[in-house]
Design a protein that fits this description.
Elements: H1 16-60, E1 63-76, E2 80-92, E3 99-100, E4 105-106, E5 115-116, E6 125-130, E7 134-135, E8 140-145, E9 153-154, E10 159-165, E11 172-175, E12 181-182, E13 202-208, E14 215-220, E15 228-231
Length: about 230
């Protein structure tokens, strides 16, 4: 008797539990990746915001010159005509952070200026350079023009006139607009007739506030030194 056989079909697959485990693994990996991307993006955004705010603060603490630089004629022993004082007006470039302009010296027009300010502590440094020398911290005084609330902070809508004293008065005398001679001991100034400013010389003044950009002022002396010179 013939025996009839039938083919048996074998099927393979995965159970619901295995599918769930794979899906959960994909979800976890995707979540971790998404969290990493979002954290990196937030960190980058925060850093960019800090950079922008720092730039704004830097601009708000920057000095801006107003008007001309005025040079005053002096006489060094010899006699040698030169410049003993420079004055210029500054204000805030952008309304914002006040700039501390507390000076270590004062000037009262008594003929013995500048006078040392007892107990003063200046955080703004004024330097000078030309082809012969670099003076890192010159004596300077300040006077306020127009609006001022009585302190030494340069704030919005305020203007300050800065006077820089170039000569060391132990070896030099200064001539004011009336032609009178004054004398005052001042440390840190120029002392040699070979290095003082002369006709046609170029120079640079740097005002370095505690915050903000450095203000550079470059000028050239005329062919003749007058008692008072407007250096445009």
């Amino acid at each position: 008797m013939a025996i009839k056989s039938s083919n048996q079909t074998r099927e393979r697959g995965i159970t619901g539990l295995e599918t769930a485990i794979i899906l959960i693994a994909f979800v976890v990996v995707a979540s971790v990746f998404a969290f990493t991307v979002l954290s990196t993006g937030i960190f980058s955004s925060e850093r960019s915001k800090e950079t922008v705010f720092a730039g704004i603060q830097e601009a708000q603490s920057t000095l801006e010159p107003r008007g001309s630089v005025v040079a005053y004629k002096g006489v060094l022993a010899g006699p040698t005509s030169t410049v003993y004082k420079l004055t210029f007006v500054v204000s805030n470039a952008v309304a914002g952070e006040p700039v501390d302009l507390t000076p270590d010296f004062t000037a009262d027009g008594s003929g013995t200026d500048p006078d040392v300010s007892a107990g003063a502590s200046s955080v703004t440094v004024i330097s000078y350079s030309d082809k012969n020398q670099f003076l890192n911290d010159l004596p300077w005084t300040i006077s306020w023009l127009g609006n001022n609330d009585g302190d030494n902070l340069l704030e919005n809508n305020e203007k300050a006139e800065i006077s820089i004293w170039l000569l060391n008065r132990e070896t030099a005398t200064a001539i004011d607009t009336a032609g009178s001679v004054t004398f005052q001991t001042t440390e840190g100034g120029m002392t040699s007739s070979a290095t003082v400013l002369a006709t046609g010389d170029q120079f640079t003044v740097q005002v370095q506030p505690p915050n903000g950009a450095v203000l550079n002022i470059r000028r050239e002396l005329p062919a003749q030194l007058d008692t008072v010179m407007d250096l445009n």
